[in-house]
Amino acid sequence: MQSSRPRLSPAIADVRRAVRNSLAPVATDHADGLILVALSGGPDSLALAAATAFEAGRAGLRAGAVIIDHQLQKHSADVAAIAAFQAEVLGLDPVITKRVDVGTDGGPEAAARTARYAALDAVAAETGAVAVLLGHTLDDQAETVLLGLARGSGATSLHGMAAEGGLYRRPLLGIRRALTEQFCTDSKLEPWLDPHNDDESYARVRVRATVLPVLEAELGPGIADALARTADQLREDADALDHFAEEIAEDFAQIVEAGIALPVSALAAQPAALRQRLIRLVVSSEFHLSLSRTQTLEVARLVTDWHGQKPLDLPGVRVERRSGLIVFAASTVGELTGQDPVLEH
Fold it and tell me: What is the pTM of this model?
């Protein structure tokens, strides 16, 4: 009798290898720990789920799946039920489906992402999962970098998604989308094709369907790989600068009444990239706020272009130069004269 197990094609081997490499450090730190695959039923997450079902036990881990029903499409409950059934057939356990209500803040994509991660966090906490695997691919990374570049979002957006961060891991960031699709074909899995992925009202879909193909045609193949490599390099640089900023803050930050301060001399001695990071780090760590670049540069001018300016009243924080210090204190005022006071999240 012929086995029903799929033949080990190159696509299956590559995806399994990527998952195996991602799970190795988890297994070292959390023997017999539970990992969850965030499964939508699409080709990327379905390939990830199947590869994880194969590799987890061999790594000494337990594997389950979590399906998030965003309720944004008419038959979303059916799609979620099919994905849950596929996860069970693959041998994943537990298989948990969560329905979420998507708000409107930041646009539909951002709101769905916020609701999705909140639900994933909740399920991980409920089950004691030690990691959640996400199905983002190299193509997703390239699209993210290109969108960040177009929006002028700075290095934070340009370094894209991290392969691992906290609870979350992205084993497929080095895998092309075409390979996950081939994995599903070779494994005789039937993925769900999200109609939103063809809706060109979304900027990401336009990048995927039009912009990247045009760049490939006009500049030659390998654009997606080059963008992903750029993301890796920028992330390495950003991590190093963040590390230096944290060390400097530990050495020079001073607790003052109602806030925290950094010496003007310490800030002035730093190159601009570190100075700006120090400002954002202090505001983020002490007041849980994120400054826009415009606001960050206004604070930096208290160091580099000092001519007796009045204190800056930013949303949630007041910044002033006083006695050789840049003092950050909590504030309820939300106005920065001549500038956009809205914080970027």
Answer: 0.80
